[in-house]
Design goal:
The complex is a heterodimer of chains A (about 325) and B (about 130). Chain A has helices at about 5-10, 10-25, 25-35, 55-70, 125-135, 170-175, 175-180, 195-210, 235-250, 250-280, 285-295, 300-325, and strands spanning about 45-50, 75-80, 90, 105-110, 140, 160-165, 185-190, 220-225. Chain A has about 325 residues and is α/β, with parallel strands linked by helices. Chain A folds into 2 domains: about 40-250, P-loop containing nucleotide triphosphate hydrolases (Rossmann fold), CATH 3.40.50.300; about 265-320. By secondary structure, chain B is of the alpha/beta class. Chain B has a single domain (about 5-130), classed as 3-Layer(aba) Sandwich (Rossmann fold). In chain B, about 40% of the residues lie in helices and about 15% in strands. Chain B contains 5 helices and 5 strands. In chain B, helix 2 packs across helix 3 (about 70-80). The longest helix of chain B is centred in the middle third of the chain and has 14 residues, at about 70-80. The chains are: A alpha/beta (about 325), B alpha/beta (about 130). The interface of A and B includes residues 12, 24, 82 and 95 of A. The complex binds guanosine-5'-triphosphate (GTP) and magnesium ion (MG).
């Protein structure tokens, strides 16, 4: 039996091996995506993001427990950064979730960002598809501890939870500009710490001023938690379920799914076009144009135009030849 | 652009509460370009094997502790084989009594690294034994 068939029959090892296949990329990964894609689209994809150390992993663990008690199966993808120096990575999110490791209704996978900016890895979207096809009701994705540009998760999830905590310095800084806009739910974690109420108040004020919120008709709820003690996680789980209900009732689930599909298609098209273009360009031509640009003989836009022109010429030639053969 | 990395699970089985050595090894392997999943303290054999399976690792590194290894390690290896993880490379780190080494080898543990093992030694051993990456 192939990996995808094994996945569909509930084989955990196959799920794990498929995620590795997706990370390795290339034609085998594409074939696997093509085979499992018809079986996706059922999971509720929930992103969990926020500054480093706010308690994302601890919260994901508590949420996973909560969803299990509600009879839902859970997949978790936890992304940590790859070291730009060695290309290696220390994946530590799992430490906080490891107690759930042996629950058959939970599947946890750590992922290194492998140089990808934006808080996710290149293969995170495909890993989500694997767990979706595996039949998980909810797939939670923990991003790399985010700064302001790590908002890729908004392109991958139906519901985004932004986790904040007191004691991260300046309150306004605590929720970075970009993160505020993508939040469907705000969690103020570490409510046992001093300053939690002030963090909450700041967020409420920003919301009152009309900032944030991706959708009409949904005001992102603010939930206080002490994830370390499991306090408040049921309320967060409620908010996650309410958000999905809202997306469905308002017809926005459909709109959001269309947007996710479009973004993904656009991204893949860009990647494909670039890699095929680079394959097609002869080395001498590449070197020649690079030199021209460096020596100010040619501006970079015109050089790019030249490359594009010869690429389309070359590919048109291929099509003609095919036409002759058939 | 296909890329492949060696994935390593570092686990600290048993009940004792310090893991400095395990963390040092985790960092060494990261710096050698590997993806290292650290599971934390007090891991049962079931937890270690479940994690190794979900993370699809090439290597499992077990940190040794006083005495318990002769009961815990066989359980890990047995379970792992049951779950189809027979081809994983097993390493042990820590102070290993000479008398126990043959039995551990017999169980399927390939690499032994005492407290004096260098970063180069450990990373080199893994790269030599694991094909991918
Ligand atoms: N006081 C307090 N500490 C907490 C709480 N939740 C988590 N922590 C602690 O905060 C630290 C970071 O928690 P994590 O869950 O690893 O945070 P994270 O956001 O996943 O961290 P990164 O993935 O490294 O960005 C740990 O030491 C937790 O024990 C809480 O509610 N209260
Ligand atoms: Mg984390």
């Amino acid at each position: 039996m192939g990996l995808v068939d094994r996945l569909l029959s509930g084989d955990r090892r196959a799920a794990a091996q498929l995620v590795t296949l997706m990370e390795d990329g290339g034609p085998p990964a594409r074939e696997a995506v093509a085979a499992l894609y018809p079986h996706t689209g059922h999971a509720h994809i929930v992103g969990v993001t926020g500054s480093p150390g706010t308690g994302k992993s601890t919260l994901v663990y508590e949420l996973a427990k909560e969803f299990r008690s509600r009879d839902k199966t859970v997949g978790i993808v936890a992304v940590d950064p790859t070291s730009p120096f060695s290309g290696g990575a220390l994946l530590g999110d799992r430490i906080r979730m490891q107690k759930l490791s042996t629950d058959e209704g939970i599947f946890i996978r750590s992922m290194a960002s492998r140089g990808q900016l934006g808080g996710l890895a290149r293969a995170t979207g495909d890993a989500i598809k694997v767990l979706d096809a595996f039949g998980r009701d909810i797939v939670m994705v923990e991003t790399v501890g985010a700064g302001q540009s790590e908002v890729e998760i908004a392109r991958a999830a139906h519901t985004v939870i932004v986790v904040d905590a007191p004691g991260l310095g300046d309150d306004i800084q605590a929720i970075k500009a970009g993160l505020f806009e993508i939040a469907d739910i705000f969690v103020v974690n570490k409510a046992d710490r001093e300053g939690a109420d002030r963090t909450l108040l700041t967020l409420r004020m920003m919301l009152d001023m009309g900032e944030g919120s991706r959708e009409r008709g949904w005001r992102p709820p603010l939930v206080k938690t002490v994830a370390l003690q499991g306090e408040g996680s049921a309320l967060v789980a409620d908010a996650v379920e309410q958000h999905l209900a809202h997306l469905k009732e308002s017809g926005q689930l459909h709109i959001r799914s269309m947007r996710l599909a479009e973004e993904e298609l656009r991204r893949i098209l860009g990647q494909e076009l670039l890699s095929r273009l680079l394959d097609e360009i002869r080395e001498e031509q590449w070197e020649f144009l690079t030199k021209e640009v460096a020596e100010r003989e040619l501006d970079p836009y015109t050089a790019a135009d030249n490359l594009l022109a010869s690429f389309f010429q070359a590919t048109a030639g291929v099509d003609e030849r095919r036409g002759y053969e058939s | 652009m296909p890329e492949s990395k060696i994935r390593v699970l570092i686990a600290k089985p048993g009940l004792d509460g310090h893991d400095r050595g395990a963390k040092v090894v985790a960092r060494i392997l990261r710096d050698a370009g590997m993806e290292v999943i650290y599971t934390g303290l007090r891991q049962t054999a079931e937890m270690i094997v479940a994690a190794a399976l979900q993370e699809d690792v090439d290597v499992i590194g077990l940190s040794i502790l006083s005495g318990a290894h002769m009961t815990l390690f066989p359980r890990v290896l047995e379970l792992a084989k049951e779950k189809g993880l027979g081809d994983v490379l097993y390493l042990v780190g820590g102070i290993i009594p000479d008398d126990d080494v043959p039995a551990l080898k017999e169980m399927g543990i390939t690499g032994f690294f005492g407290p004096g093992a260098s970063a180069k030694e450990i990373a080199g051993f893994i790269k030599q034994h694991v094909e991918r990456g």
